[in-house]
Design brief:
By secondary structure, the chain is of the alpha+beta class. It is built from 14 helices and 18 strands. It has two domains: 137 residues, Methyltransferase, Cobalt-precorrin-4 Transmethylase, Domain 2; 182 residues, 2-Layer Sandwich (Heat Shock Protein 90), CATH 3.30.565.
């Protein structure tokens, strides 16, 4: 098996502090011996080793490097034939420079490689590229993900992409690019409102372009001049409602009202809400206000329900307005979108509002479940959160997160908010006054 430990200098500066070329020029002399190299070559290609005769197609090389990086790292050697003969490369300096360029410009996030040139007695020189995937997942410039299986690289199919990303980095789901989504699937009015609110002179000059704005200004899409692939975050935030329901059907929300104090009571009404995040937030708040009273200040006394009243809904709960807004916003922003079979649910009972959200339990509870009570979170979907929380997006949500919800709701109703984490679900139950 090729090396799984890589020869990075422990005293080298970070990538942000010096360029790729400076990094390479200041590296110590190659530590890969000819004996070690020959041992690797004799073993042939496998999951962690790829052999190349020459560097002739940068796109294919980029795919190969991405595959190695996404498969826990590996080695690529240039100057070796399919028959495992050492032919060498003609211009090792040019090969090294092109590899540096590929790792910097053709792969996202950029890779910091280690490159050796090793010479043999017959004057043949091979170039060895070591790759370590510290920041997986990696993708090519056109938004494709690859892994290495045995001696072959394989593109991750769309059907399995979310599962694969969920396994290696669950916090990055919002950055998955969606192919075959045209610019016409986006709400230009919502996008223009964002741009105009920050003073960009868009619209009045007639130069507004949806794709360019999403890619260059909001960083919610990728692709070159001829391509446009929006991310999951871009579609959820700015997609047209019907397109979001079609492209990301698992982002729907179920809202229900029960005539009792738990889910075993009679169901009064249920709705399935689909659309972009602004639509979902406003729709959920309208549904809650249909059955509950929301107020900024603590009520002086409990509402009295007439014994003659024969309504199915026995009473209207009274809740702190800002706590409910923040709880609904948190549910939308921080749900674990990689979990497809658990929808977000808003459940209204006679005495409480319960919000159930998909959230990976493994690695989260119980330590993180306790930490979030103090505002220390494993923050999911940071790009979505950054835009959704801005008033320019159209939401009017308070600040303070879960600590504010816990504190204000208890002061308002006199009852402590309940938090549960189990079976890949995060549950928040807020009691009314």
């Amino acid at each position: 098996m090729p090396r799984k430990k890589f020869r990075f200098s422990p005293h080298s500066e970070s990538f942000a502090e010096r360029s790729f070329q400076e990094y390479l020029q200041n590296q110590p002399s190659p530590q890969t011996t000819r004996t070690e190299l020959l041992r690797l070559i004799r073993g042939g290609e496998d999951t962690y080793l790829e052999l190349k005769v020459k560097l002739s197609n940068s796109d294919k090389i980029a795919k190969g490097i991405v595959a190695l990086a996404n498969t826990d790292g590996g080695t690529m050697i240039f100057g070796i034939t399919d028959q495992l003969r050492i032919e060498g490369v003609r211009n090792p300096e040019e090969v090294q420079a092109e590899l540096v360029r590929i790792c910097r410009e053709e792969i996202y996030p950029p890779l910091l490689p280690l490159i050796d040139s090793i010479s043999f007695d017959n004057a043949r020189i091979v170039v060895v590229l070591d790759v370590e995937g510290k920041r997986r997942p990696y993708r090519t410039r056109d938004g494709r993900f690859y892994i290495r299986v045995g001696a072959e690289k394989r593109e991750i199919a769309r059907a399995e992409l979310s599962d694969w990303l969920s396994e290696i980095r669950p916090l990055g789901y919002e950055n998955i690019p969606l192919q075959n989504v045209p610019e016409t699937d986006f709400d230009d009015g919502l996008l223009w409102t964002i741009a105009a609110a920050f003073g960009d002179d868009i619209g009045s000059t007639g130069n507004y372009q949806t794709g360019e704005f999403l890619k260059k200004d909001l960083l919610l899409a990728i692709g070159n001049m001829d391509e446009f692939m929006p991310t999951v975050a871009g579609v959820l935030l700015f997609g047209k409602n019907e397109k979001v329901a079609e492209l990301l059907s698992h982002s729907k929300i179920t809202a229900a009202r029960y005539a009792g104090e738990n889910g075993n009571a009679q169901l009064v009404e249920t709705l399935e809400l689909k659309g972009n995040m602004l639509f979902l937030y406003e729709s959920v708040m309208r549904f809650i206000e249909r059955y509950c009273d929301l107020a900024k200040d603590k009520p002086r006394r409990r509402a009295v329900v007439s014994p003659e009243e024969n309504s199915i809904v026995k009473a209207r709960g009274n809740y702190h307005l800002f706590s409910i807004r923040e709880a609904v916003a948190n549910a939308l922003v921080h749900r674990d979108l990689a979990i497809r079979d658990i929808p977000t649910r808003i459940l209204i009972y006679d005495n409480a509002i319960e919000i159930v959200n998909p959230r990976r339990t493994n690695g989260f509870a119980p330590p993180a479940a306790r930490a979030i009570r103090y505002g220390i979170t494993q923050r999911l979907n940071p790009q979505i959160a950054a835009i959704f929380s801005k008033r320019e997006y159209g939401t009017n949500i308070p600040k303070g997160g879960l600590p504010m919800i816990l504190r204000s709701s208890k002061h308002f109703s006199g009852k402590r908010v309940e938090i549960y984490t189990s079976n890949d679900e995060f549950k928040l139950k807020i009691y009314g006054a």
